[in-house]
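The instructor's notes for this session suggest beginning with a concrete chain rather than abstract definitions. Hand out the sequence below and ask the class to guess, before any prediction is shown, which regions might be ordered.
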Amino acid sequence: METRLQRIFLSICLGTSVLLAAMPGAMAQQTLQIEPQIPRDPVVQDQLDDESFVIALRGGLLSLNDFGSSGMAAAQLGYHINEDFYVAFDYAKAKAGLTSFEKLSGAAPLLTDEQRNWQYYGAQLGYVLLPGEVFLTRNYAMNSALSVFVGGGNVDFAGDNVFAVQAGTQFRVYLTDWIAADLVLSDYVFETSVLAEQKSQHSLSLSLGVAVYF
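After discussion, reveal the predicted structure:
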């Protein structure tokens, strides 16, 4: 009787062992058969060309304090040292109008027509503060960059050639991988004695233009 019970017990243990050994394989087979059906939308990201030189042409307004605001044209040749820093050479020109004194008094002009030509040429160092994107629609965006810059150069105005400090900010939107739109706010600080008084003058400018990479 005991022998028979032992055989039954051994049979049960052997069957249980075989069943347990087969379960991981069956579970693995079931796991391998599960394939998630998740739709994936392709992501297309614009790649900017690796050209480091840029030429920019801009037009806007320049405030010359006592002479009011005048139209301004500017050109820039820049070189991007890396993703964060760049250097640029600037040229800008405008033509000053009449002062309030000249308009009200009707007196002889303080400056000749040639002396009213305002010109700036100099260099600047810029830092890309906020690279990012501008979303035109929910599904369409353009690369952009907000940068600050500071530099120095010379101002020719009213028969004088004086040193000037330039500082400002630039917002650039990349329309394609080689052309961008620029919005620039600058402040030119220089000494002037046009009205028989030596003083520092801040000439603010706001300009819009295009930049081409090559």
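Then share the key points. The helical segments are 2-32, 100-105. The CA atoms of residues 115 and 158 lie 4 Å apart.
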